[in-house]
Structure formats: structure tokens, C-alpha cells
Amino acid sequence: MNGLPLREIPGDSVIHRLWAGTKLIAIGMIGILMWVLPSWPALGMVAVVVVGVALLAGIPLGAVPKPPWWLWALAAASVGLSTLVAGVSGGLVTARGVLLGLLVIAVSVLVVWTTPAAQIAPAIATLMRPLRWLRLPVDEWAVVIALCLRSLPLMVDELLTLRAVHRLRPHAPSNAGHPAAQLTLVDMVVAALSSALRRSAEMGEAITARGGTGRLTADAARPGRIDYIALGIMAVVLAVAIAGSFLITGAM
Fold first, then answer.
1. Which residues pair with 66 in a beta bridge?
2. pLDDT at 25
3. What are the transmembrane regions (predicted)?
4. Rounded distance, CA 111 to CA 188, Å?
């Protein structure tokens, strides 16, 4: 998949200036809507929101991931098979599921594009603060999530590098007796694991040099007026999507 799906795209737009917790709350609101009411009007409204946010954030077209052709072929085959088995209604349900999956990915990627990784862990810790009353390890959970988010781009880069190296190596039939014939998927997995260990060691040293894992959740950022306005707009949009879904369902 071509593009830049797992790294922040620098900018100074309204979306970039939003508090990270506001974006996480918006994701939760959209996720609940699409889980409870995955209707066509709701999905269409979410798609409009995704496109509008991308335009406001100034996301360049070249950064949009380009899925491989076989992914589209698989989705089309799934819709076609569902249509043959369960009729037009079955095909529409499958198509709605495919669109739902794409929208979930798009919303998540938009947050990654417009939010520095260093702001996500403190926002998660702030949002989960009520759980501290139950003596749950909120800060530790936030640190784990932050480390995972920081590791994903590194692992993707390493896997792409390993794949390119694997393509450049000579190939030979399995019975040729040539060393190239012994290169299997296991070699790539072992190389990926060793690279992950090396990267994790480097990241651990960098975090220790900057003050330890406690610094990952230490951020004084809090929601402002623009965040409350954004959440209000999101609530209105979701209310319109719910009302439209019930109106169309009642008319049918």
C-alpha cells in the first residue's frame, strides 16, 4: 500500500491545533454510531466528515494510501458472492460492511496524520483519569499505547526494507541445491524479529535519556474553546445522521 499512513503530516490547520483527546472522543462517537446504526445515511455522513476534515487539515493527495488492486478485487468478489447467495440485500449488506471498514481506517489514519505521537499518550491518560478511582494503572496503559504507536511506523519501514531485500536476492528452485533455494519466509520473520529487538532497545535508551516513561504522559495540554466547538459540531452531525437514517427507514 503506497502512501504515508502512519506518520504525522506537519501543518498548522484547525484540525492540527485540536487537542488530541478531542480527536479521540470524536473517533469514539463515530465508532459508536457506526456500530449501533451502520445505515447508508450514517455511513454517508461519516464519509462527508472524513473528506471535510482532510480538506481542512490540508492533507496532500499524494499522502493518501493507495490500496493494491487485489484488495479492491477481493472486496468486489465478496459483494458479488453475497449477491449470488443472499440476493441484492445480501450484496448491499456486504458493501456496507466494506465501506464501514474503509471509514474506520480513514478516521484512524486522519488522527495519526494530524496529531503528534507525543500528545496521544497524555490525552489517553487524561480521558481515562476517572478509572484511577478504581486503582487501575491508567498511566501504564497510556505508556503502552504510546510505545505501540511510536513503534508501528518503524516496524512498517523495516518490513518494507526486508521485502525489498528479499526481492533483490537470487531465486532458485527448491531442488537446485543453491543457497538461494533455502531462503524462505522464516528468514524474513527472523530478520524482522531481530530488527524489532534492535529498534526497541534504541527506543528504550532514547526514552531513558529523556527522563523515563513518565515523561510520555506528562503534558499540560487541555481542551480549549475550539475543542468544545468541534465536539458540538460533531454531535450535531451525528444527530443529523441518526435522524436521516430513521426518516429514510420510515419512508421505505
1. 2
2. 92
3. 20-37, 44-63, 69-92, 99-121, 228-248
4. 31
Band of pLDDT at residue 26, cut at 50, 70 and 90? very high
User: Which has the closest alpha carbon to 126: 18, 34, 52, 24?
Assistant: 24
| Contact call for residues 129 and 56 (beta carbons, < 8 A) | no
Q: Are residues 188 and 231 in the same domain?
A: no
User: Averaged over 100-108, what is the pLDDT?
Assistant: 88
* Residues 108 and 149 reside in one and the same domain: no
Largest distance between two CA atoms of the chain: 70
d(CA 64, CA 62): 6
Contact residues for 120 (Cβ-Cβ < 8 A; gap 6+): 20, 24, 145, 146, 149
49: left (phi over 0), alpha (psi -120 to 50) or beta: alpha
Q: Does the pLDDT value for residue 232 go beyond 90?
A: yes
Q: Is residue 132 part of a domain?
A: no
Domains contained in the chain, number: 2
Q: 173 with 97, same domain?
A: no
Q: Do 5 and 93 have their domain in common? A: yes
Containing structural domain, residue 179 = 137-219
Question: Looking at this protein, which amino acid is placed at residue 80?
Answer: G
Q: Can you tell me the distance from the alpha carbon of 19 to that of 30, in angstroms, rounded to the nearest whole number?
A: 17
Domain membership of residue 142 (yes or no) is yes
